[in-house]
Specification:
This protein has about 375 residues and is an all-alpha fold. The protein has 23 helices and no strands. Helix 5 packs parallel to helix 7 and helix 15 crosses helix 16. The longest helix has 18 residues. The protein is flat and about 60 Å long.
Length: about 375
């Protein structure tokens, strides 16, 4: 026989459960869009040391949902673009909004696809939609071997967004016979962004080799500086392209091309893929020498390029070159230096303190960039500033 529970005791238990499940004052303030209250509560809770990561996520989600829910339809596209990196926090909102066949619905569906909340088979039928935004989403789903002809068709679509989606689908499908299509897209697509992505997609193919490395060399001759940066990165970053002739191209580039953007891109890529080339002392030395010249003799843009793209984990000699720029007269260079050094255990404390001084200055031109960098570094105290 089931034991009876005293009514008073049952009420107490139920009440405690409701209190435990009820949103905190911080989350409730976020739900109604009271930014001032959210900022004050975050600051107080951080100082008290009783703010959990889970509650921060709930407050962030509530803030995003309020902002999106109160935005006019015309503003929703730009709002969704702004919060693209926080998409996992608003999956329920996106899931509901995708059901309306308009521009916002297309953007919501695309975000869900990127988050892998929607499978290719669920979007594939839209590849022939009259609306280019939805046709682009459908083209992303063309990843089966049987979709080869449809991918080819999408690569020739009049809309640049559809062609970009087809490039991504070609990369995902990974059919060795379709690398030629990516080379042609890199050569002929009228949209620069698509040409860049075609080269990046080619670098992701494990089956590339001498033929593709040579094709990129031919493409190099007529390419502008930005596309050459992509090609140089592909030669250096892709093990198969590197082994298929990319190495020779990178050696020539680093040995003879001074401080060009493509040379810095290739050198930075070598530092990021150091483990794959760990027995190649020549390529490592050339990369280090190029980056050291960029940091010591390069223009402001050369320095920022090297700082934003190179890895300092190996070797330590490059770390010393970066440290010398900590007092550089250019603010953007100094910030890039501090962000790089903050990732090193021995430099973290000092660098993070300097970054917080900038982050707390609302009038500083780089305050937002620095706050984002501190968030990526996992510094909890930046939450109140965000």
């Amino acid at each position: 026989m089931m034991a009876r529970v005293n009514r008073s005791r049952a009420a107490t238990i139920l009440l405690s459960m409701c209190v435990a499940c009820a949103p905190s004052l911080l989350v409730r303030s976020a739900q109604v869009g009271d930014r001032q209250a959210v900022a004050s509560l975050l600051d107080a809770r951080l100082k008290a040391g009783d703010l959990s990561t889970n509650e921060v996520k709930k407050a962030a989600r509530a803030t995003l949902v309020f902002e999106l829910g109160s935005a006019k339809n015309a503003d929703l596209l730009s709002r969704l673009s702004e919060v693209a990196t926080c998409g996992r926090l608003i999956v329920p909102f996106l899931d509901e909004r995708k059901n309306k066949h308009d521009d916002v619905g297309a953007r919501a569906t695309a975000m869900l696809f990127e988050l892998e909340k929607i499978e290719p088979r669920e979007v594939r039928d839209w590849s022939n939609d009259n609306d280019a935004r939805w046709r682009a989403i459908g083209s992303r789903g063309l990843v089966r071997q049987a979709d080869s002809a449809a991918r080819a068709k999408a690569l020739g679509d009049p809309d640049a967004g559809v062609r970009l989606a087809a490039i991504a689908a070609t990369q995902a499908a990974g059919e060795p016979s379709e690398t030629t299509r990516l080379i042609e897209a890199a050569r002929l697509d009228p949209e620069p962004l698509n040409r860049h992505h075609a080269v990046r997609a080619l670098a992701q193919f494990p089956s590339t080799g001498a033929r593709e490395a040579t094709a990129l060399r031919d493409l190099w001759e007529g390419a502008d500086d930005s596309l050459r940066r992509e090609i140089a990165t592909a030669w250096a970053a892709s093990p198969s392209l590197f082994a298929g002739g990319g190495r020779d191209q990178v050696v020539v580039l680093l040995a003879t091309n001074g401080l060009s953007g493509p040379a810095i891109s290739a050198a930075a890529s070598i530092t990021r893929t150091h483990a794959a080339h760990q027995n190649d002392k020549e390529i490592d030395q050339l990369a280090i020498a190029t980056l050291e010249r960029a940091l010591s003799q390069g223009s402001r843009l050369d320095k920022i390029h090297a700082l934003s793209s190179a890895s300092l984990s190996e070797p330590s000699i490059l770390q010393e070159s970066v440290k010398k720029l900590v007092d550089d007269p250019d603010t953007e260079v100094r910030v890039a230096v501090l962000i790089q050094l903050a990732a090193l255990p021995q430099e973290r404390k000092t660098s993070v303190a300097a970054l917080f001084a900038i982050a707390k200055d609302d009038g500083h031109a780089l305050a937002h960039q620095v706050r984002a960098a501190l968030a990526r570094l996992g510094e909890r105290d930046v939450i109140a500033l965000l």
